[in-house]
Amino acid sequence: MRKLRTAAVTTLFAAAAISGLPGGNATAAPGTGVVESVEAVAAPAVLPGSATAERILYTSTTVGAQSTVASAAVYFPPGAPPAGGWPIIAWAHGTVGLGDSCAYSVAGPGAVERDWAYLGKWLEQGYAIVAADYAGLGTPGEHPYLNGVVEAHNVVDAVRAASGHYPALSNKWVVVGQSQGGGAAVTTARHATEFGGPGLDYRGAVATGVPAYIENILALMGPGMPPVKLGAHTTGYALYLLNGLRTTYPELDVESLLSDSGRYWLERARTECLSPLGDALVADGVVIGDLFTRPLSDIPDLNGLLTRYLGLPESGYDRPLFLGQGLRDTDVITPETLRFAGVLAANRQPVTLKVYPADHDGTVNDSLPDSVPFVRDLFA
321-359 pLDDT, tens per residue? Predict the structure, then answer.
């Protein structure tokens, strides 16, 4: 039984991987979605094939409905814009890290070949791309990792800011995301009409590699859980999750549950990007279960807190939602993602599910033959 439990927990933690989901306050801070400044995008973050690439700083919302300044990269396709302006793909990216230097508009994507090929395809279809960094990435403040409601605000506000600033952009938009961004895209889809208001014309969403019900994973953390070494990125994701939890709920004093080693790695994860953090964790042989002195379950109402922070919305979608899932994806809990799609269907939500014989990264581009016509129909 112990072996079975250990294997199950290990699988669940591997699935925590890269996600970004709801949680926090759904009320927007006043005066959001306004461009404060514009600058050139750093060379590593310039999308190949884009005619123009700029980085905007804009007003948005973070934890507790507090006002903040976020950043985004804006990419324009070549040629003259169509009547009404370029329709917008709002790109919700996967995990890059928590430090400002990790921001997408600063360092570009971690998986360059995957993401650049994917975004390039949308650019070729005649869409402008607005890629939000999320609050606290590349701008002051902490990044509430996996707080999907905050991410939804950031995505919507980036679209509002960009479409209001650039005359060549339409107000028609779709959100597209993968992994952390897949969860962010799902939560954005649930709140886009509400957060966007009458000035934006939201059409629908595409989300691939979406993790579901990961609140059940985080709840298992504690001394000896899991008791084995995990992959480099998986251990890093776990530390990012703990950082996101303490940023969303600072009153919980997450550090009090950790050992000296746990507090060291938690703080290091707060500023380090995913790849170097993962390398360092492997080099030191870090085991997540050894970072705790008390279980997370000591936190009162833990399940309720985690559900509000991490839970995917199961109803309330007012536009079509495309979910693409790889059957060989071990970075998320694929059966749970499929169950989530089934729950949406049972709740009569406008969901389309497509599955692919691919892993987490492969699903992104493998889904294009289905998602491109799906989005084309949304804009038709």
Answer: 999 999 999 888 899 999 999 999 999 999 999 999 999
Stated pTM of the model: 0.91
Instruction: Tally the residues of the chain.
Output: 380
Is residue 338 a contact partner of residue 353, using CB atoms and an 8 Å limit? yes
The answer to whether the bond into 226 is cis (omega within 30° of 0) is yes
Strand pairing class (86-92; 128-132) = parallel
Distance, CA of 239 to CA of 258 (rounded, Å): 11
pLDDT in tens, 68-79: 999 999 999 999
Residue 292 CA to residue 252 CA, distance in Å, equals 15
Beta carbons within 8 Å of 301's beta carbon, 6+ residues apart: none
Q: What is the three-class DSSP state of 162?
A: helix
Per the listing, tokens 């999308």 go with 47
CA angle 4, 274, 216 (to 5 degrees): 35
Q: CA of 267: how far to CAs of 1, 17, 233, 320, in Å?
A: 35, 19, 16, 40
Q: Please, where are the H alpha helices in the chain?
A: 2-16, 104-107, 112-124, 148-165, 180-196, 215-218, 232-248, 260-269, 274-283, 302-310, 334-346, 360-366, 368-379
Q: Is the dihedral of CA 144, 135, 203, 192 positive or negative?
A: positive
Residue 103 structure tokens: 């921001």
CB 209 within 8 A of CB 329: yes
Q: Please check whether residue 151 is in contact with residue 92, taking contact to mean a CB–CB distance below 8 angstroms.
A: yes
- Which residues are paired to 147 by β-bridges? 21
